[in-house]
Design a protein that fits this description.
Strand content: 15-25%
Structural class: alpha+beta
Number of strands: 14
Oligomer: single chain
Shape: elongated
Length: 599
């Protein structure tokens, strides 16, 4: 039984190069990925690199008041929108009773982040009653305008109309792709792919009216009176190319009332008359951005409705499919702005829909992100946007790095003085751990939005002690075996199982503490917890794949195997006992020669 054990032990000792080669390949691969990605340094947090600070003021909304519960909910939603995994170091916190401060580090798309945190994300699906390009002279529809089922749409006879981006896309589209899209339950964005004309005023009978007089359409969906007249006048005077006018429309309307709104399609602003909301955005159970690899739709936002939302969506699309354009379209209205106005040719059932069209990847992901994380319970007005400098953070970072360097120097001095030759193993292991930590932090910046802030730097400094502690545990176990009279090579192997258990238990406790701290805290403290947890995992990797194999190789060298006084493993200085086997061998024959029966 003993011989096979020695064979396996010898085999394990003879192949430490495999582990060293594995960790070397990992370092080379990660470093290469870092240089190829162009991120040669970790992304810094707002306290080290500066950034943007946004102040938002809460306003009471319909059916909701500015109170602590709603403010806390808004902070939580904003945090999830901006931080994603929670480690991008964008800070969202309340100030006073009705203000929220958002700090976004440099390197983050501040405009996109600003939209993410301040957008209420109230979504409604409203039927389109009229629409036309806005921002210039209104174009009258051509008398030969064709319905959406036509395979070859006719553009407006006006020269300026033909230069519209929407006209160009319409005239170059293929014949009737909407039929196939509708059969798949798909909502095609922008109403461009079925050959519908951009002019909004086509009546149900197919006749056209001047685009500047949309009175027939609003009147068909609202009671006669001053409200209808006011809506008509507002629509006629609306110029969506002006930000001041866009801010006045859409957001203030009630879901159950008709309204006018603006929307931008391929860099061209359009104005709309919309009917009462048919489906609420809260009925959207899930939304995600995907790329259509089987068609020409590009980036899409796939939506899954709840049971009640699926029925409402099927009802409204079924009704709209009976109308002529643009009354066969529904406006997807986000915070009062039409983000898309797809048309339908049949009821979309099954609770699945896709918003597609001229989305970029960023647009699709932004919309899906806001819909997935839900609507804010309050409306917010942007009070100020300021730029934060990194002067103070830079001084603190310099002081922190100086403190870390002093601490590392003291650790090295202690290792050299106490462990002597073994200190080479410890310092090499610390160097490998530092390289892995730096490279992974650099890669995590663009991957998950990780940003290095001052607490994260503190976590990395604390990790020096955790990593050094693992080496000390293993070295002391080896010394204990040598004190028992064993030579170095068997001592290295026998000490490993005992040291391994201690190291794993210690690192598990550290990782558990970091995980709990990461879960129960927010903001900068999460940076400390994340860095501590990451370096703890790397400590296990380095000890198993580098420190132990390196000790196995060094145990074969005479300098360490013979117990040189500067190796740190000198049996005499450790007070080693005489070899156990030498004391037992002469005692065996003497005891065996005596026969107790002869006595």
């Amino acid at each position: 039984m003993a011989a096979p054990k020695r064979g396996r032990s010898a085999s394990a000792q003879s192949k430490p190069g495999r582990s060293l080669a594995l960790i070397l390949i990992a370092i080379v691969a990660l470093t290469g990925g870092m240089f190829l990605s162009g991120n040669k340094t970790p992304r810094l947090g707002i306290d080290l690199a500066g950034g943007t600070s946004i102040t938002l003021k809460a306003k009471a909304d319909q059916g909701s008041a500015v109170n602590k519960a709603n403010m806390d909910t808004a902070v939580d939603i904003m945090n999830r929108r901006v931080n994603g995994l929670g480690v991008s170091e964008a800070e969202v916190q309340t100030q006073g009773t009705d203000n929220i401060i958002v700090n976004i580090p440099k390197g983050t798309n501040s405009k996109e982040a600003q939209q993410q945190v301040g957008t209420t994300a109230k979504l409604y699906f409203r039927p389109v009653l009229a629409s036309e390009p806005s921002g210039g002279a209104a174009q009258s529809p051509s008398p030969s305008a064709t319905p959406s089922g036509s395979s070859s749409p006719q553009p407006s006879t006006s020269p300026s109309a033909s230069s519209s981006p929407k006209e160009k896309a319409s005239s170059s589209s293929t014949a009737s792709p909407t039929a196939s899209a509708t059969s798949q339950g798909r909502a095609v964005t922008d109403g461009l792919k079925a050959g519908s004309t951009p002019t909004p005023s086509t009546s149900a009978s197919g006749s056209t009216k001047p685009s500047s007089t949309p009175s027939a359409t609003p009147s068909a969906s609202s009671s006669a009176g001053t409200a209808a007249a006011k809506l008509q006048a507002q629509y006629a005077a609306l110029d969506c190319s002006k930000p001041a006018e866009r801010a006045k429309v859409g957001g203030a309307s009630k879901p159950g009332e008709p309204t006018v709104a603006c929307g931008q399609i391929r860099k061209v602003w359009y104005k709309y008359v919309l009917g009462p909301a048919a489906v609420d955005g809260t009925e959207v159970k899930k939304a995600q951005a995907v790329f259509d690899t089987q068609g020409a739709s590009g980036w899409q936002v796939q939506m899954t409705f709840s049971n009640s939302g699926a029925k409402k969506f099927a009802d409204i699309t079924g009704q709209l499919a009976k109308n002529q354009p643009p009354q066969n379209e529904f406006g997807i209205v986000l915070d009062g702005e039409v983000v898309s106005s797809p048309f339908v040719q049949g009821a979309i059932t099954g609770g699945q829909a896709e918003i597609s069209g001229s989305f970029t990847q960023q647009d699709a992901q932004s919309l899906a992100n806001m819909l997935s994380y839900g609507a804010l319970p309050l409306s917010f007005q942007e009070q100020s946007v300021t730029t934060v400098t990194a002067a103070l953070g830079g001084e603190q970072l310099h002081a922190g790095l100086l403190a870390g360097a002093i601490g590392l120097a003291l650790v090295v001095i202690y290792l050299v003085a106490y462990y002597r030759g073994l200190s080479v193993v410890a310092m090499a292991s610390l160097l490998v751990s530092a390289i892995l930590t730096y490279v992974i932090m650099s890669l995590l910046g663009p991957a998950i939005g990780f940003a290095l802030n001052l607490p994260a730097v503190c976590g990395a400094i604390v990790a020096i002690g955790i990593t050094a502690d693992s080496f000390i545990v293993y070295f002391e176990r080896i010394r204990d075996e040598i004190r028992e009279g064993r030579s170095l090579r068997p001592a290295v192997e026998r000490a490993w199982p005992r040291a391994r258990r201690t190291i794993l238990v210690s690192d598990f406790v550290s990782f558990l503490a970091a995980a709990v701290l990461f879960i129960v805290t927010v903001g900068k403290v999460q940076g400390f917890a994340f860095t501590l947890g990451l370096t703890t995992l790397l400590d296990v990797v380095v000890v198993f794949l580098f420190t132990k194999p390196l000790m196995t190789l060094l145990a074969r060298r005479k300098f360490f195997a013979n117990g040189h006084k500067w190796s740190g493993l000198d049996p005499k200085s450790l007070g080693a006992k005489p070899p156990l086997r030498r004391t037992r061998r002469p005692a065996g024959p003497a005891t065996g020669s005596a026969d107790p029966k002869e006595a």
